[in-house]
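Re: the multi-chain job from yesterday

Posting the exact lines I submitted so nobody has to dig through the queue logs.
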Amino acid sequence: MQKFSRDQMAALVAHDIPEGATVNLGIGLPTMVANHLPKDREILLHSENGLLGMGPAPAPGHEDPDLINAGKQPVTLLPGGSYFHHADSFAMMRGGHLDFCVLGAFQVSVHGDLANWHTGAPDAIPAVGGAMDLALGAKRVVVMMEHLTRSGESKVVERCTYPVTGLGCVDRIYTDLAVLDVTPRGLAVVQLAEGMTLGELSRLSGVELAMAA
Amino acid sequence: MIDKIVASTAAAVDGIENGSTVMIGGFGTAGIPFELIDALIAQGARELTIVNNNAGNGETGLAALLAARRVRKIVCSFPRQVDSQVFDALYRAGEIELELVPQGNLAERIRAAGAGIGGFYTPTGYGTLLAEGKETREIDGRHYVLEHPIHADYALIRAERADRWGNLTYRKTARNFGPIMASAARCTIVQAHAVVALGALDPEAIVTPGIFVKRVVEVASTMPLIAPGAEA
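And the result, C-alpha cells for all chains:
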C-alpha cells in the first residue's frame, strides 16, 4: 500500500479549489496547499489577522514585522490585496463570504464534527484562537490530516472523544489513506491511496464506510 | 481648539485606575503598543483586566505587565504559545483568571461594544465547551450562541499616523484590533509612529475617525515609515 505523501495530500486539496475562490489555509499541514495551487487559476488567500490576497514568504532580509499571517510568520501581499481589521476579517468567514477553508484536525466524526483545538488533558492550558471560527468559516470546509495517530488509532471516528471545535461543519476529509466526503448517510470514500481497499480502510477506521456514488 | 496630542507616554496613560479593563491592540509582531505598555507598568495601576488576542510573549510588553503582577484577569483567544511562559506560570499557580474566547467572537464582542449592541447570536462555538451555560437559539434552522459585548475603560493601540483630532491610519496587518478597540473603550490612547498636521491625512483613507480617540502620543519606532502613495 502506498500512502499519499503530505505533498500529494496538499496537491489533492489544491486541485479541488476552483478558479476565483477565496481560501483560508489553517496552520500546520494545510499551509502546504499554497505550494500546490494550480498556476492557471486565480485563487485569493485570506489570513484571519486581516489580509486578503496574501503572497508567499518574503525574500530573506525583506521581512516586515507589520506584515504577517495568522501563524505570525512574515508574508507578502499581492497586487490587488487588501488589509482590514479583525471584525471585518471574521465577518468574511462567519458571513459566508469565503469559499474554502482547509483545516488540520485531531479527529473528525462521521457526522462531520471537528475536534482540533484542545486535547482535553486536565493540565493543558486551553487556547482556541480562530479554530472555532474557521470551522464554520467558509462555504466549504475541508480537513487535511493523517488518517491514524502514531499509535495507530483512527482520527476518523464515530464520535469525537476530544472536545469539539464545531458540529457538522466538515464537508470533506483528505488523509494519507483516502479522500472521504461527509454525507447525510455517513462517510463516502471518494478516492483511496494506491493498494488501499474499502474493507481495509473501514477496519482501520473502525467506522462504516461506503464508496461514493 | 481640539488637541488630543500629549507630550509623553507617561502623560498618555495618566489616570488609569486600579481595577480598570484595558484593551491592548496587536497581533503577533504587528501593532503592539510596546511603549504604552511600558508606560502603564511604570504608572503602576493594579488589578487590571486585560483584553488582547494573546497573553503575552517572551518577557516584554504584555508579558512584562503580567510579570509585574498588575493583571487580575485576561480575556483572550490564544494564551498558550511557545513563549508564553510568564502567563503559563501565573495560570498554573492560580494567580490569574482566564476568559477564553474564540478569536472571531472576541473581535465581534469588541465591535459590538463600540457599536452599542447589547448582545448578538453567533454560530461560532455552538455545541462546544466554550458555549457551556450560554443561552442558545435556533434561527432559520441554524444554531447560535448569545454573546455579550466587551466594554473597556481604556484601549492602548498603535497606529501609523495620527493628527491632533485623533484621526488614525494603520500600517498593513498592524491594523488588526486597533479600529474596533478604539471604539469599544471609554478612553482610547494611541501611540502613533508620526503625528501629522490636520488635513494631511486623506479623508478617504482615515481608518479610525478621531471621535473614537482621546489621547495621542508620537512614538517614532524603528519601523520603516511608508511615504504616502509609495506603499510597498
